[in-house]
Specification:
- About 20% of the residues lie in helices and about 40% in strands.
- With about 170 residues, the chain is an alpha+beta fold.
- The model is unreliable at about 1-30 (pLDDT under 50).
Length: about 170
């Protein structure tokens, strides 16, 4: 009887956990960005069945926060947002494509989800690699690739919320 139980125990140990992989329990890559850096990004935003290609330039500062400028392919600024270290969001510039409320609610939230250290369950970000992220919310999907990260101090002027565009 004892010799019949051992193969069964071995089989159970070898099988491991049978938890299916779903977006909520995917293994996450260890992501860390320099505290001070300039990050160049490319993204595809899918909203309402349409796709838009975007470029992003993110300045990271340990003392100033995060400043993201989103442009379209020909260089026009679509969104410019500053997130201070305390989490305060300042829309520096908006556009008809990315309205102020949308930037405050979604762009800033996605920025925090991806670039603010350990991810929590409330962040709908899937980390495909240390340079590839997918954020999927009810109304859109953002497929983001990090093209280049240049470590180094960024100009303090970039993080001055008083220098935003006046409407």
């Amino acid at each position: 009887m004892r010799h019949n139980v051992l193969p069964l125990l071995w089989l159970l140990l070898a099988a491991g956990c049978a938890t299916p992989l779903t977006p909520g329990n995917l293994p996450r890559a260890d992501i860390s960005f320099p505290a001070d850096a300039l990050v160049t990004q490319r993204a595809v935003l899918t909203a309402h069945g349409r796709q838009f290609t975007l470029n992003g330039y993110l300045a990271l500062s340990r003392t100033g926060g995060k400043r993201l400028i989103v442009t379209e392919n020909f260089g026009a600024v679509l969104a410019d947002v500053l997130v201070k270290p305390d989490g305060a969001v300042h829309v520096m510039r908006s556009s008809p494509v990315f309205r102020r409320a949308w930037i405050e609610r979604y762009v800033a939230a996605d920025l925090q989800c991806i670039f603010s250290g350990p991810h929590n369950a409330a962040c709908p970000v899937e980390v495909l690699s240390p340079t590839h992220f997918v954020v999927e919310r009810g109304g859109y999907k953002l497929d983001l690739d990090i093209v280049e990260t240049k470590p180094g101090m960024q100009s303090a002027e970039l993080f001055d919320e008083t220098k935003k565009e006046t409407p």
